Amino acid sequence: MDIAGLRATLRPIVGELKDACTHDTLDALCVELAMPTPANAGSKRDRLFASFDDMLNEQVPATAERLLKRGLRDPGTRNRIQDLLWADNSCPSIPKRFRREVARAMERIELYGDARRFDELLDLLWVIETNPFASLAGREDTGLAGLIQRHVHRNPGDWSVERLFDELGVYEATDQRFALFLEGLADADVRPDIEDQRRFVDCVNEPLRGCGVELRQTGLAGGYPSFSVVSLHNARGRPKNLIFASEKKPDIRFRDAIDNDIEIASDADKVLVYDRPIGQEGLRWQDLQDWWSESRGVNDGAEAKKQLYRRLKGCMPENSPPQMILFESFYRGFGPAASKLPALLPEVWLHWDPKTVRERGKNALLRFRMDFLLLLPHGVRVVIEVDGKHHYADGTTGMADPARYASMVSADRDLKLAGYEVFRFGAAELRSETSANEVHTFFAALFKRFKVLP
Questions:
Q1: Lower CB count within 10 Å: N or C terminus of the chain?
Q2: Has this prediction a pTM greater than 0.70?
């Protein structure tokens, strides 16, 4: 994130808040904006500047968010702040060419269902200029708001969708802003009809898929489907059964095969099943902790965190200390920030077959269980494997086993083709004196690549 740019944009806004407080209420305003309390000396503007300048860089985004919630008069400044905050967000790229193709495809369908909500969406994301004195002078508003009323609402067809996008600045906007615009156009507020929603999604997905992106249903809101822009290169679909932290193959049966409801028939305490929807933000440690707290009746957050951490540590195989080192290095390395990061889930079941490999024969599924799994935002699934000698050597002779190695890399290819990102650590590198730092450096780089920030 461009913190210097964010500071330069926010500082004059903070200074102008002098008119929104008195000297007596200035301290409370600073607290409201997550800024430190300034010294009680100087003008209000000077005190506000002093408070803002004393903030650490990592505190600045929170103040920006709170200023946005207060509301800014200038939508251009609002958009600059939003773009700076969104710069590190994980969002698939949608080049200008495909945005134009989306606009042309939209000529085949209705632009919106609810005009008022459509205008609210435009005001929320774009710089819509108005001429407040036009009506007083008996003239028509020649600002963009007035032009949209004339050429889009009153005289449909005057402007093509491509022209509207051009006037709004859609083609030059950031990927995040354009994605939010598409998601808003698909929303039930703008299209209060499910069939209309689906027509829009089908229409724009034709050109979007050309750049590896689509609008996909990711939830329900008020009984209507909600859609998100996602990359086609990630694992498809949403996780339905997350079975993890198991030391041995779980005894599973379907409680309701139609609804895909599963039940652990025996040793239920030896396996964890996360049974909540996993949305676009992935699965964070805080989500996992909240689930543990509510399902186990542990009201104390600190105690729930300890219990869950011990339970996850306890599932890892005793013959693989490097796995434990990686797990501990991850959570200790990120400290309190880990609560907002994707959870590192150990011993996750990928495949499950009631028959053994010997019983199933040549059609058996390989790699039943993953050492670690992370579910990142926007459907990104990351597998972490720790390779001990048994991954590439014969268990009896200790000699290199080409067939065993070939089986492992074949399973890797299958995972990657299914949309998983696979990364491997050698057990030996996790036994070095610098292993904790190396683990932290790897995960920091991983999160940077996928634009996941603590």
A1: C
A2: no
